[in-house]
UniProtKB/TrEMBL annotation:
Pfam family for this entry, one: SIP
Entry's Gene Ontology molecular function annotations: oxidoreductase activity
UniProt protein name: Siderophore-interacting protein
PROSITE patterns the record matches: FAD_FR
UniProt xrefs under InterPro entries: FAD-bd_FR_type, FNR_nucleotide-bd, Riboflavin_synthase-like_b-brl, SIP_FAD-bd, SIP_fam, SIP_rossman_dom
Sequence segments annotated as region (Disordered): 226-260
Highest taxon, organism lineage: Bacteria
Species per Swiss-Prot/TrEMBL record: Nocardioides daphniae
Signal sequence, renumbered to the chain: none
Limits of the FAD-binding FR-type domain: 5-105
Amino acid sequence: MSTRAQQFSAEVLRRTQLSDHFVRLVLGGPGLAEFRSTGIADEWVGLVVPGQFQSRYYTVRSWDGAELVLDVVVHETGLVTEWAAGDCVGDVVTVTEPKGSFAMPDDAAWLLLVGDLTALPAMARIREAVDVPTRIWAEVPSDVASYLPPESDVTWLDVPHHETSALAAAVEAIDWPEGEGYFWMAGESAQMRAIRKHLMRERRLPTSAYDVMGYWRSTAARQPRAVDPAPIHRAGKAAGKSDQQIWADYDAATEAREQA
């Protein structure tokens, strides 16, 4: 019998604009009394904000037993982006129970971290949690260069054209350290698939030596492209529709897309 994942109600206590690309949200309140961290360095939670029907997943930047810190990447569009860009302090959100996958072997002699902007919070937390020599490759805008812990060994990669990534090529050019270590990477899904193939076929690494995760999909990779709920939600609210009516509109649009 499957057990339903726990959900927690939380209030936005504080909001801080860290950069043009990051908003820090500090969540708290009595609804998080039973929240328990996994202790896994790349753990994430699902976040459901007011007016949103689906979870979006974010790295737990920190949890001190009372306050949960999430650093949200700000995109051009999207329900979480639009909500987080406004005055969301005091809003009540839903947080799912945390999960994580980082599993560096105890005898690893080194760690390589690679990722784009969406992976930066996880790379920062991992860097703080480990005590082995660590190198980082970060494909991020220059305004977040100070986000990683001081004295991190970082190779800053230029960000390509919108909704593209060159992380796969960067990994293929890495001069790997000697001995046994661990490789962790997250970013655009198509790039992650290419890297998994490289690690398996070229590097011939056992699956216990790496963790590669797709955090998001580029528009071009969506076949067929999923229905974007943001414009449906905006139009519905402008028309005075209830959340239930907007949800019905979203279902209808999704069904029409699948049948097209």
